[in-house]
Specification:
The structure is a single chain. The strands form 5 sheets. The protein has a 4-stranded antiparallel β-sheet. Strands 6-7-11-10 form a 4-stranded antiparallel β-sheet. The chain starts with 18 loop residues before the first helix and ends in a 7-residue tail after the last helix. Helix 4 crosses helix 5 and helix 10 packs across helix 12. It is of the alpha+beta class and 353 residues long.
């Protein structure tokens, strides 16, 4: 899947009737403000793992930076590890003194993406064109600021403005087994209001095109409902990453079966375990698991070390679910089944990539 549009696209002038979008926006829940959608194909691309310290170390003396590469693997349907690589070209953001500084996407961009995907599910702010596989979201700085504040992740207007610039100007290139499968921004064709209007009216609407992975997922029903409110309550990025992994992988969660994963998979799959010492990385993972317990996602976990002499080669973590998580996964399964039934009846499902 490649996204190499040279000229900026414009959003549709009128709303488009889309049953696929209606299915994406309807949830099985008593409170729609608490839930959203996760698209595993997009989520599994590591992109928000940069820290301020790491960004500083990657910049040259004049504030610029070369693209950064991260290697990871994804298992295919036969269980074989398929090698992937993401190359992240940083965004160049103009500073007050007229110079430019390189920025990679990080935690603020991650949180704003979640807020935008939630805003997108509100009928007045989302447009999905099933024929073109394009999804557009309309929003204001004020909407994002309010959403983040309500979720305990408050950001200032300048922080939001810069993060949107980073999301629209950094470029992700994904290679599968050495072959390029995607190139594009996190937010494409971002149409922002000018600085004067931004300073004058924080409620002015902007528009941006969501990643093509999300648009294809909407057409193919390859998304999953999850507890968005709980995710946004998590303090640690790694906790949010693990939460989504469980939502997408532990789909048959119940009290008769558990779920396990390896430390090595989390390290290369998330990009969030880059401490100098492996001991510190494992402590960080344990901290995230403890937060998942606090957030009523998992009830219990165990860690089984694979050692060679005194060296820990890998660690297998096994988790059991809480009543809340089991209930949420059942609701997500029900919603998916209902969507499949509706889509099959109307012949809506598009499995093309």
């Amino acid at each position: 899947m490649t996204d190499k549009t040279k000229s900026r696209k414009k959003p549709p002038k009128k709303a488009i009737a889309s049953k696929q979008y209606d299915l994406f926006s309807n949830f099985v829940t008593n409170d729609e403000s608490e839930v959203s959608n996760t698209v595993e194909y997009w989520e599994r691309i590591p992109k928000y793992f940069f820290t301020a310290k790491q960004m500083k170390s990657l910049r040259t003396s004049d504030g610029l930076a070369n693209p950064y590469q991260w290697h990871y693997t994804i298992k295919d349907y036969q269980g074989n590890d398929l090698p992937y690589m993401v190359k992240i070209q940083p965004a160049l953001i103009e500073q007050d003194d007229g110079t430019y500084k390189a920025f990679f996407p990080s935690v603020t961009e991650e949180l704003i993406e979640e807020a935008l995907k939630k805003i997108f599910t509100e009928q007045n702010y989302g447009i999905h064109d099933p024929k073109q596989s394009e999804s557009w979201v309309r929003f204001s700085y004020a909407m994002i600021k309010r959403e983040l504040k309500n979720r305990g992740k408050g950001r200032s207007y300048p922080q939001i403005k810069q993060a949107l610039e980073v999301m629209s100007k950094c470029i992700l290139t994904v290679l599968e087994d050495g072959k390029e499968v995607y190139t594009g921004a996190i937010l494409s064709d971002y149409c922002s209001v000018d600085r004067a209007k931004y300073l004058d009216d924080a409620k002015a609407l902007h528009v941006a095109r969501l990643p093509v992975f999300i648009s294809h997922a909407i057409n193919a029903l390859e998304y999953r409902q999850y507890n968005y409110a709980r995710l946004m309550e998590c303090k640690e990025q790694l906790t949010r990453w693990l939460h989504k992994r469980l939502v997408n992988r532990y789909t048959n969660a119940n009290f008769m079966n558990d779920y396990h994963f390896m430390y090595s998979d989390v390290k290369q799959g998330s990009g969030l375990l880059q401490q100098t010492r492996e001991t510190d990385n494992r402590k960080k993972l344990i901290s995230a698991l403890n937060e998942l317990k606090e957030q009523s996602v998992i009830n219990h976990y165990t860690a089984q070390e694979n050692t060679e002499g005194l060296t820990i080669l890998d660690v297998k973590y096994t988790v059991t679910p809480t009543v809340d998580f089991v209930s949420e996964q059942k609701a997500a399964n029900k919603r998916h089944s209902e969507n499949i039934a509706v889509a099959s009846k109307l012949q809506l499902v598009d499995k093309s990539r």
